[in-house]
Design goal:
CATH class of the largest domain: Alpha Beta
Distance between the termini: 65 Å
Order of helices and strands: HEEHEHEHEHEHHEHEHEHHEEEEEEEE
Largest sheet: 8 strands, parallel, barrel
Strand order of the largest sheet: 2-3-4-5-6-7-8-9
Shape: globular
Helix content: 25-40%
Number of strands: 17
CATH topology of the largest domain: TIM Barrel
Length: about 475
């Protein structure tokens, strides 16, 4: 009897304790986190649409072999960045005049000028190469022979390697009208048997050898990647964290959906739930982007788009297709959310720095961030803790961190600790900053290619740094 009475008393006390509001957060005290330590710094989230690198709406530009005067404009790139928050382009190169010859030096020179314009203007490109932009029977052949494709890839490779810094990814392209791997007159059409796929895999393997290892190559459908894995003796399974961002074909083959939301199966993009499930998991660690190609009741509307972009971790989408679909997102109030959340979007909630720091000793900063975007960054990104002398901005101390933002997944809260050993000669007051620059030396010091956190009063536009706090020594 006494034991039962004691048990009932304990339950009663627990019930009373768990019904009183938490004094820290006002919520359920039984699930409430420990209070933050004294000295914690809090930050305010911003709803601003940000022109961050390697994400967002992109503009498609066609560069035809018959019009070598057309080329990228630095002024236009800068204006697009400033006025439309745009940092991405889909550069579609048509090799129509070179189906049975080398690509001309004039064409290659124009492509090089485009890469230089991207670098100067503060943007990157998704690349696609193809031979025809229609599938009329009287315009056959729609693509070059595998031999000529191989030769063209060899010609393009030096430029891909020289300008990797401004390439987001390469869409597999080459095969079929628009490079979409469907309307082909030189490869087996609608391949079914294993032998039908072999010429396509030979092209992909050539691309994997020619495109720099830190850049991904996009298949038009998940089925192609799954079939590639099967025919190369690998399990048909999505990437996991241990496999991600390696130099393997599995880690480098991503996707692009060019009929997003246009029908129940996205016009042949999916043929089974297995394929959907594969892409939903695989795109945690690989790029996903594309365009819409038509309306579909309910499915192509904004709330549905946001749900699908979340599920498949979308990083970019064409701003030109399909205009009726894009206009519907404006009409239903979804467009701004999509613009904010395409790719990554990092919000810093709080930071806890070393209290009473001393020159010459260890310093740390514990950051709590949220990625409220659809995806993680696709390409490597540096993380730096920087101290800048408030009396002389030329005096700064940069500490590169062993942290990889590609694992800061969409929808996750991230707690990470930054470390530094303070220089023994540091004295006075310093600003403390988080810098997320592009790792390529050509872009590292260009603020247009650094990540801006989605917070108020943190961004320093002239340096690309995110202000955290002050340090007094």
């Amino acid at each position: 009897m006494k034991r039962n009475l004691l048990f009932a008393t304990l339950i009663s006390l627990l019930f009373v304790a768990c019904t009183n509001p938490c004094p820290v957060c006002g919520g359920d005290p039984c699930t409430c986190p420990e209070p933050d330590p004294e000295g914690t710094i809090y930050f305010t989230e911003s709803d601003e649409i940000i022109a961050n690198p390697e994400r967002g709406f992109l503009q498609q530009i066609y560069y035809e072999s018959g019009n070598l005067e057309s080329q990228a404009s630095v002024k236009s790139i800068k204006n697009n960045r400033e006025n439309n928050h745009m940092t991405l382009y889909l550069h579609s190169y048509y090799l129509t005049d070179y189906m049975e010859s080398d690509i001309s030096q004039e064409f290659l020179d124009r492509m090089e000028r485009n890469f230089l314009a991207l670098r100067e203007g503060g943007a990157k490109a998704v690349l696609r190469y193809s031979y025809k932009s229609n599938f009329n029977n009287n315009d056959k052949p729609w693509d070059a022979t595998p031999e000529w494709m191989a030769r063209h890839i060899d010609q393009l490779e030096p430029y891909w390697r020289k300008y990797t810094d401004v390439i987001l990814c390469l869409q597999a392209g080459f095969i079929g009208s628009w490079g979409e791997w469907y309307y082909t007159s030189t490869f087996p059409f609608n391949p079914k048997k294993d032998e039908d796929f072999v010429p396509r895999w030979e092209l992909i393997n050539h691309l994997l050898e020619s495109v720099p290892e830190d850049r991904q190559i996009a298949f038009r459908t998940p089925g192609y990647k799954m079939k590639y894995l099967e025919m190369h003796g690998q399990p048909i399974a999505p990437l996991n964290e241990a496999e991600a961002y390696q130099t393997t074909a599995k880690a480098r083959l991503c996707g692009h959906n060019d009929c997003f939301l246009a029908s129940a199966d996205d016009v042949g993009t999916y043929f089974s739930m297995e394929e959907r499930d594969f892409w939903a998991e695989d795109t945690k660690y690989t790029l996903m982007g594309g365009e819409t190609c038509g309306t579909c009741p309910k499915r192509s509307e904004g709330p549905s788009a946001i749900k699908e972009m979340t599920k498949y971790h979308w990083t970019y989408i064409n701003r030109s297709y399909h205009q009726e679909v894009l206009n519907s997102w404006i009409k239903d109030g979804s467009m701004n959310e999509i613009m904010r959340r395409l790719g990554y979007r990092f919000v810093l909630d709080k930071a806890y720095p070393t209290q009473n720091p001393v020159a010459g000793e260890r310093y740390s900063m514990v950051l709590t961030l949220r990625n409220v975007g659809f995806a993680a960054p696709a390409n490597a990104r540096d993380v730096e803790l920087i101290f800048v002398d408030k009396d002389d901005a030329t005096k700064k101390f940069v500490h590169k961190q062993q942290v990889d933002p590609r694992f800061w997944m969409g929808g996750d809260t991230i707690v990470t600790t930054l470390h530094a050993t303070l220089d023994a000669n540091m004295a006075g007051e310093y600003g403390v900053y988080l810098n997320l620059p592009d790792p390529y030396p050509t872009l590292h010091d260009n603020p247009a290619f650094s990540i801006r956190l989605a917070n108020e009063d943190m961004w320093e536009a002239e340096t690309g740094y995110n202000y955290l706090t002050d340090l007094v020594l």
